[in-house]
UniProtKB/TrEMBL annotation:
This is Peptidyl-tRNA hydrolase. Belongs to the PTH family. One of its GO terms (biological process) is protein quality control for misfolded or incompletely synthesized proteins. Keywords: Cytoplasm, Hydrolase, RNA-binding, tRNA-binding. It comes from the Bacteria. It is found in: Cytoplasm. It holds the Pfam family Pept_tRNA_hydro. Monomer. PROSITE patterns: PEPT_TRNA_HYDROL_1, PEPT_TRNA_HYDROL_2. GO terms for molecular function: peptidyl-tRNA hydrolase activity; tRNA binding.
Length: 201
């Protein structure tokens, strides 16, 4: 694979920053809010690299998802979700990554559990992690991989819902969901947003 254009309008950046959102600590590790970090864990397995602590306040793994492909910096902020922007902006500066080559992988209440959506820019939909990143990067024009977790049942508060573990049925399907989300990230960085959307949506 080359790092050149895969279409007339897409040229692959040399380095991508892939940030998986979540909260630190074992009590949050398998909750819906941390599905972004689970996807980044899947990508680290594909790269064959372990995570190490970075001074920006994140666990970081680097490598390439395919021979000759762009370099990827996989990051899991060590901060709580609502201040994810600080380590994201610090890593973007450290690795000289433009916001357009930042991909944020996060939980999304507004789409079903087994669904993915990709976009660049736009609103944050009330997601505090995205709000923090938009503020610290100084732009909303970064890529988002929205990993569906679905709406809470009944009158359950959304904040409580995302901090709870997946249901038994969801846990059975979770490996496939994470694999598809990791595939979506790969398609985004190798073929561009439009091609990835056409494949995933």
């Amino acid at each position: 694979m080359t790092t050149g254009a895969t279409s007339a309008s897409f040229s692959t950046p040399q380095t991508w920053l892939i940030v998986g959102l979540g909260n630190p600590g074992p009590q949050y590790a398998r909750t819906r809010h941390n599905i972004g970090q689970m996807v980044v864990d899947e990508l680290a397995g594909r790269v064959g690299s372990g995570f190490t602590a970075h001074k920006a306040g994140a666990a970081v793994a680097t490598g390439r998802l395919s021979p000759g492909g762009p370099r990827v910096v996989l990051a899991k902020p060590a901060t709580y979700m609502n201040v994810s922007g600080r380590p994201t902006a610090a890593l973007a500066a450290f690795y000289s990554v433009d916001p357009a080559a930042v991909v944020v992988v996060h939980d999304e209440l507004d789409i079903p559990f087994d669904t993915l959506k990709l976009k660049i820019g736009g609103g944050e939909g009330g997601h505090n992690g995205l709000k923090s990143i938009s503020q610290t990067l100084g732009t909303k024009d970064y890529h988002r991989v929205r990993v569906g977790v679905g709406r809470p049942p009944g009158r359950m508060d959304a904040a409580d819902y995302v901090l709870r573990p997946f249901s038994t049925e969801e846990r059975e399907l979770l490996p496939v969901h994470l694999d598809r989300a990791a595939d979506a990230v790969e398609k985004l960085i190798t073929g561009g947003l439009t091609a990835a959307q056409n494949s995933v949506h």
